[in-house]
Design goal:
Strand content: 25-35%
Oligomer: single chain
Number of domains: 3
Structural class: alpha/beta
Helix content: 25-40%
Radius of gyration: 22 Å
CATH topology of the largest domain: UDP-N-acetylmuramoyl-L-alanine:D-glutamate ligase
CATH architecture of the largest domain: 3-Layer(aba) Sandwich
CATH superfamily of the largest domain: Mur-like, catalytic domain
Largest sheet: 8 strands, mixed
Shape: globular
CATH class of the largest domain: Alpha Beta
Strand order of the largest sheet: 8-7-6-9-5-10-13-14
Number of helices: 13
């Protein structure tokens, strides 16, 4: 089969190489980093049996217009096609705008025996939690992590961006939050829901709507009251307590993990011992300051407000230092300037440290003038610089890290 694979920088190369290994004739081309016209011209003069297209590509892209009549599938569908029946005996796929990583870790915490956990923070072998490598969470990364799980003979829990391949035993949608992608012409949530349409089983977070009659809503299995989680599904009934359930960043992931465990035939009671993850409300002490680390790809206004509330409950002091913003790369939905301003207005920190050159604007200067005039506003280029700014001086106020970044 003659196949054209688009987007070599978000997994297209891995998909193309896998198809070549299966005996197909494959052309691969970058569609994002300014591919030269000389590289595109030969492609446009050819014909193909199939095109493999990332879901986030502008639907009006020149190549798509040129090959309007060529059958096309997404990267997610291509990975499912390549994997075929060569998948682990138990495979859970997780997608959503928030809570993917925490949900994945929580499910892995419950599953017995050996397995592979694949997240944006790294790929780990359980039960020893040995870090194997770090790949992106594009669907193409499943090709290597499925291989690792198969070699181990264990389960696989995989976090994926913008949808699932619908290959595994269970697909999970972690959030009803939406944003525009594909040159702002598509709904990211709709893409994710469409990708899960053919999943064997589908579990969704509260608020997520699905047209599938057999969709399972987590709240039909799990009930959470403050620090207590109760669950009932068929013959599995029980409860556990965990103070993390009082945090919005953990409540839904732990609810989803509990429901998923029940659906797969495992008692989720072990989640009572689940601990906060780095970048997801983990608490450390740095140079006399309590630091609440909530810097991750899902960081937003609500999670930041929650983190600040948590920080004040821990420190017993209303004063805090807020490190907020976004790394310059690779976070699809972004942390909009107006959302940062709204967050600061609600939280009212003692000092503000803004990460990212994109926030040096007249709008931000005007909106945060009260901090700038009193010398309580600092801009830094990179998240790596936060310690040198936040941990200085005699004030031992609690520090909240709320920078949107891949961790």
């Amino acid at each position: 089969m003659d196949i054209l694979v688009l987007d070599t920088i978000h997994g297209g190369t891995e998909i193309g190489n896998a198809l070549v290994a299966l005996g197909h004739h494959v052309d691969m081309i970058d569609v994002y980093l300014g591919t030269a016209a000389g590289e595109i011209s030969p492609i446009l003069r050819k014909s193909y049996d199939r095109m493999i297209v990332p879901v986030h590509l502008d639907p009006d892209h020149l190549i798509l217009q040129q090959f309007q009549d060529t059958p096309r599938i997404s990267h997610h569908e291509a990975v499912k096609w390549i994997l075929g029946d060569h998948i682990p005996p138990l495979m859970i796929e997780i997608t959503g705008a928030q809570g993917k990583t925490t949900t994945a870790h929580a499910i892995a915490h419950v599953l017995p025996g050996c397995g592979i956990l694949h997240t944006s923070g790294g790929t780990y072998r359980y039960p020893g939690k040995e870090r194997l490598f770090r790949h992106s969470i594009t669907p193409a990364s499943l090709l290597s992590v499925v291989k690792a799980a198969n070699e181990l003979g264990g389960w696989l829990v995989a976090e994926e961006s913008l949808g699932v391949t619908a290959t595994g035993n269970l697909a999970i949608i972690t959030s009803d939050l939406d944003y525009r992608c594909a040159a702002k012409k598509k709904s990211a949530l709709s893409i994710k829901m469409d990708s899960a349409a053919n999943a064997r089983r589908l579990l969704v977070a509260p608020g997520v709507c699905s047209s599938r009659e057999d969709v399972v809503h987590a709240e039909t299995i799990v009930r959470i009251d403050k620090e207590r989680c109760e669950y009932h599904y068929q013959s599995i009934t029980g409860s556990f307590e965990n103070p993390l359930l009082c945090l919005s960043g953990y409540k839904t992931p732990l609810m989803l993990a509990s429901a998923a465990a029940c659906m797969l035939g495992f008692d989720p009671g072990a989640l009572g011992s689940f601990c906060a993850l780095p970048g997801r409300m983990a608490v450390t002490i740095e140079q006399g300051h309590s630091v609440i680390d909530n810097a991750n790809s899902g960081t937003g206004r609500e999670t930041t407000i929650d983190a600040c509330r948590y920080a004040r409950s821990i420190s017993g002091d209303d004063q805090l230092i807020l490190v907020i913003g976004q790394e310059d790369h690779a976070v699809c939905e972004g942390f909009a300037p107006d959302e940062i301003v709204r967050t600061i207005d609600v939280v009212r920190p003692e000092r503000v440290i803004i990460v990212g050159e994109q926030y040096r604007s007249e709008y931000m200067a005007s909106s945060l003038s009260r901090y700038q005039k009193t010398g309580r506003l600092t801009h830094i280029r990179s998240f790596d610089e936060w310690k040198s700014v936040a941990l200085v001086g005699p004030n031992e106020a609690c520090v909240v890290l709320a920078v949107k970044s891949w961790r």
